[in-house]
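Re: that backbone. Tokens:
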């Protein structure tokens, strides 16, 4: 309880420092960590705290990920206490979700906060250049940079009149202790397709018995993966096909101990029939509903239907006071029914594009009497 109170006080002090600085961004960013001491290869569990200090609502793309050039990203910087000992700087790598990704949009109103938990792989600094030489252990200062870039942000702002936040903001600094691995366990295997071909670039996640992420890697050109220097215990291995529109997750568990210090698990990723919409990859879509004069219209319910003939999805959502609503929709043809008390319902069609990113639509609702 004392530790939690101390963390809360530290965060309040950090917020004060950020808000007092001249010219700071509308979006304030703090990072807190669950473990002050980390023994590799275990991952660091962190919470991102975002605060909207502006006068208008902002929209963020979640979840956070490694920098890709389009979307929200987190860059984690690690500086050892003894900077003279490090020729190659340390860093933190954002783990992808072990399960099927569920991208979405989050709205932060003026004065409101948003929190997101993320898991980081800590890569210590090295004494040599280009990642060579001995690892530098001990105290580190961790700082994160949250950023967002979107190829169609200006278009969405012009059409919908919304602020899809773009920019870059740096967090506070937290101190952690990084210690070398003490385990001797090893888990390895190969991932193949139904044609027995190596599956390259599949995301392989390793979790502990409590299903908390420990490590993550991607399969190589031979479809192989490996985790080393693991403590004894029970682990879950989860494999999913990366950037695939359908849910392809497979998982198994294995135990390591002194008698069996190594485990091998091969995976066969097979295409399968999809019968539920939740097994398909959705896309964040932002709507604004207006009246015939283009003024935002509130108290409108959206009822959206998508169908492939075999899979059906039906979503209902109420718009906010400013006529906006963020939903997760399937790419392709979506039929939208607009309903408002005292008005005749209206049906429209929106075509959500394939691929990642964000789509946006403005729908005019002629709210005439029934």
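Recovered sequence:
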């Amino acid at each position: 309880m004392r530790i939690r109170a101390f963390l809360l006080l530290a965060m309040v002090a950090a917020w004060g420092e950020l808000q007092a600085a001249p010219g700071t961004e509308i979006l304030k960013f703090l990072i807190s960590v669950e473990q002050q001491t980390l023994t590799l290869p275990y991952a660091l569990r962190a919470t991102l705290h975002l605060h909207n200090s502006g006068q208008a609502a902002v929209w963020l793309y979640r979840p956070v990920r490694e920098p890709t050039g389009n979307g929200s990203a987190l860059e984690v910087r690690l500086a050892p206490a003894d900077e003279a000992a490090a020729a190659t700087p340390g860093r933190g790598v954002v783990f992808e979700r072990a399960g099927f990704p569920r991208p979405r949009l989050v709205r932060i109103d003026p004065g409101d906060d948003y929190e997101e938990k993320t898991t980081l792989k800590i890569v210590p600094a090295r004494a040599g250049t280009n990642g060579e030489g001995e690892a530098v252990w001990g105290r580190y200062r961790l700082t994160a940079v949250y950023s967002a870039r979107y190829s169609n942000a200006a278009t969405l702002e012009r059409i919908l009149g919304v602020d899809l936040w773009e920019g870059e903001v740096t967090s506070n600094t937290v101190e952690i202790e990084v210690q070398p691995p003490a385990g001797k366990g090893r888990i390895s295997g190969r991932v193949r397709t139904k044609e027995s071909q190596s599956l390259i670039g599949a995301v392989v996640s390793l979790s502990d018995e409590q299903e908390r992420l420990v490590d993550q890697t991607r399969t190589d050109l031979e479809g192989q993966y490996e985790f080393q220097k693991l403590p004894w215990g029970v682990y879950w291995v989860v494999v999913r096909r990366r950037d695939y529109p359908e849910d392809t997750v497979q998982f198994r568990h294995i135990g390591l101990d002194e008698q069996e210090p190594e485990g091998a698990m091969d995976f066969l990723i097979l295409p399968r029939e999809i019968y539920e919409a939740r097994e398909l990859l959705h896309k964040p879509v932002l709507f604004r509903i207006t009246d015939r004069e283009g003024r935002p219209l509130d108290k409108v319910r959206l009822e959206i239907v998508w169908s492939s003939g075999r899979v059906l999805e039906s979503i209902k959502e109420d718009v906010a006071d400013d006529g906006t609503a963020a939903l997760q929709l399937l790419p392709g043809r979506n039929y939208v029914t607009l309903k408002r008390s005292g008005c005749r319902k209206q049906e429209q069609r929106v075509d959500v594009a394939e691929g990642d990113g964000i789509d946006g639509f403005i729908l005019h609702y002629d709210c005439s009497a029934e």
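Residues 277-364 form a domain with the Immunoglobulin-like fold (CATH 2.60.40.1120). The radius of gyration is 24 Å.
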